[in-house]
Amino acid sequence: MTATLDEVEGPAPGPASPTGRRLRRARRSTPRNTLTRGAALGLGISMVWFSLLVLIPLAAIVATAGSGGWDQYVTTLSNPQTWAAIRLTVTQAVLITLVNVVTGTVIAWVLVRDRFPGKTVLDVIIDVPFALPTIVAGLVLLSLYGPESPLGLHWANTERAVTLALAFVTLPFIVRTVQPVLEELEGDVEEAAASLGARRTTIFRRIILPSLTPAIAAGAALSFARAISEYGSLVLLSGNLPYRTEVVSVRVLTFIENGNKAGAAALASIMLAVALFVIVALDLVQRRVARRG
Amino acid sequence: MVEVSRPVKWALRLLALGYVFLLVAWPVGLVVQHTFEDGLTNLADTFADPDIVNALKLTVMVAFWAVAINLVFGVTISVLLVRYEFPGKRVLSALIDVPLSVSPVVVGLALLLVYNGRDGWFGPTLEANGYQVVFDSPGMIMATCFVALPLVIREVVPVLQEIGDDQEQAARSLGAGARQTFLRITLPSIKWAVVYGVVLSTARSLGEFGAVKILSGNYTGRTQTATLVVEGKYQNFEQGTAYATSFLLAFVSIACLVVVAFLRPKKTH
Predict the structure, then answer these.
(1) What is the separation of C-alpha A253 from the centre of its chain, rounded to a whole number of angstroms?
(2) Is position A154 within any domain?
(3) ipTM for this model
(4) CATH level 3 topology of B39-103+138-263
(5) What is the tens place of the pLDDT at every residue in A219-228?
(6) Which tens digit of pLDDT belongs to each residue from A58-91?
(7) Cβ–Cβ under 8 Å, residues B211 and B225
(8) pTM, 2 dp
(9) Does A231 contact B203 at a Cβ distance shorter than 8 Å?
(10) Residue B209 and residue A57: Cβ atoms within 8 Å?
(11) Stretch 76-135 of chain A: residues touching chain B, C-beta under 8 Å
C-alpha cells in the first residue's frame, strides 16, 4: 500500500499510451496523471496478485476447456442431463428476470414516491438477500416453503424451489439500480406534462419509463447473470434432482467431484462467456447513459 | 411530481410489501423462531459441538485474512484507477468486476485447476516446497478473496472521483510527502467508503459457500466453515444446530447491513 505512494515524481515507466485525444488533453492539464515509480511498483504488485487470484485461474478454465477442442464441448453438451440443466437454468433465469423487472420497479417506486411508516425497514430488508449467506438463504426459504411450511406449501425439491431461490437472491438488483435514478428524476417535467393535459398513464409511459429503462436494463442484466450462476441457495432447497431441479452450477460441481475436469471446464467456460457478455453489455449501457448526461 | 390515484397507490404498496414479506421477511423470521423454539437449547448445543466451534473460528480466520488482503489491494487499485493514467486501465477496471458475476462453483474450479497438488499448473511445485493451497486454509482464503474482490473498490472509486485531487495537490505543493498526503488527506476523505467496503466484504466473506466448498475439501473439524456446517447438519437431520448456526450467520450479516445503513447518510453529508 505504502509502495503506491512512496515515490514522489519519477519518470513514467514504459511507453506512455498516446491513445485518444482525451487522454492527451487530460495529461496536459494535469501533468501528474502518469504513473510515478512508486505507483508503478504498486500497480505491479497488485497485478501479480490479481493475476494469481483471478486471471490465471480463469485462463486455466479456458485452456482446459480448449484443450479438448470442440469434441469436448459436443460431448459435454450432448449429455441429456447437462442439456436439461442448461435449459432449466436459462428458463428460470429469464422467468425470474422478468418477474424482477416488474416487482423491482414497483418496489423502487414505492420506496421513492410513496410514504408510509416502516419504509426504512423495507429499505433495509431489500438488502438482506445481498448480505445473507446463500446457504442460509436456502434454509430460510425452506422454513416457509419446505416440508414444515406454515402455509402448507411443499415446494422443496420442485421446479418452484428453483424459482424461489433465484427470486430471493436477485431481489435487490433492479430495486437498487432503479431507485437512485427515480430519486434524481425531476418532478417539473411530469408536472409540465400534466398541466398540458397528459394523463397519468401517458406521463408514466412517455416520461418516467423512458428514463428508467437503462437502469432497469442494467439491473435485469445483473439479475440474469446472478440467476445463471446461483449455487448455494439451491443446495438445500431444490434437492438437485437430475432432469428436474438440477442447475448448471450443480452440474459443474458434479463434474468436478467425478474428476471430469475437462467437462467441468467446458461447461464453466460457457458460464464465464455469459458473465463476460453481461459485463460488456452493462459497460455499454452505462456509457450510453453517461453520454446522454 | 405526478401523484398516482389512491387505488393504484395501495395496489403498488401492497404488491411491494407482500412480495418482500413473503420472500424475505417471513422466512427470515421463521428461522429466528425455529432457533429459539426450545429456548436457548439450540444455541447452547451449537456452542457445545467442538466441530461447529472449530468451524466458526475457521470462518472468522478466513474472513479476516480475505478482508485484510482485499482492503489493501482494493485501496491500492482504487487510487491507481482514479489518480493515474496507464495503458490497459479500462480493461483492468472492467476485469475487476468479473468476480461479481462469476458463479462460485466456477471460481472454485478455476482455483482448483491452477493450485491443486496433483495436476494443477502451480500446485505440484508449491506442494513440493511445502505450501499446500487446495484443501487447506490458503485455498479457502483465496476463494473468499476472489468472490469479495470488487466490493471495496466499488465503494472507494466513486468517492475518490468525487473529491478530486485538489487537496492532495495543495498538500504536495506545501511540501507534504506522498505517504503524508495519503495518510492525512486521501485516507480521511475516503474513510467511510473504506469502512463501508470492509463491512460489505466481511458479510460476503463470512457467508461464502460454493467456492469454499470446492477448495476446502469439506473435512469436518478441519476445513469446514460455518456455511458448510449448515449444509452438513441440515442434511444429517440435525435441524436444531443447522438453524442455530444459520441464525448466527444471518445475525452477523444483518448486523453488517444495519451498520452500513447507519453509516450511509453520514457519508453523503
Answers:
(1) 21
(2) yes
(3) 0.87
(4) MetI-like fold (1.10.3720)
(5) 998 899 899 9
(6) 999 999 988 878 888 888 888 899 999 999 999 9
(7) no
(8) 0.85
(9) no
(10) no
(11) 103, 106-107, 109-111, 113-114, 116, 120, 122-135
